[in-house]
Amino acid sequence: MSTPAVRRVCASRQTTESPPDASNEASGTAYLETLLGYNASRASHTLISHFIRGVGSFDLRTVDFSVLSVIGHRPGVTSRQLCQQLNVLPPNMVVLLRELDKRGLIERQPHPTDKRAVGLLLSTRGKALMKKAEKAASAADLEGSANLSPAERKTLTRLLQKIYVVAA
Fold first, then answer.
1. Would you say residue 130 lies in a domain?
2. Distances (CA, A) of 5 to 8, 10, 15
């Protein structure tokens, strides 16, 4: 059963998009490949698999890498700010920071203006690890997007950020 809205979307796709590849029609994915979410998910799986291979040797999960990267590029950031920046729930961040602290990758220091808050810094060990891990992540990112030109990579990054970055 198709609604008027679905018929309008399908009609607009027929006039503004090139016809689906015959191989996609045969596989049954022609419709799925018109959906942004489906394509984003497929691209994400590809990029994440490259990322995991690239940074896996550093014993870092994606979320570990993200937290350490933000701390490294924004010394003194608080756990609350990390939660907001990375969309991580506070109870999960507490556990994550405890694990990174046990591994000797981060240090805590009193916040300069808010006596209730604690600023986070990379330890010497954390800095050394992230220098190597960020280099590996960049290489993995390039490998996972090898079919894109540098301009296409930049455009895709900008467009994806338009979806998830909320204007302040």
1. yes
2. 5, 9, 16
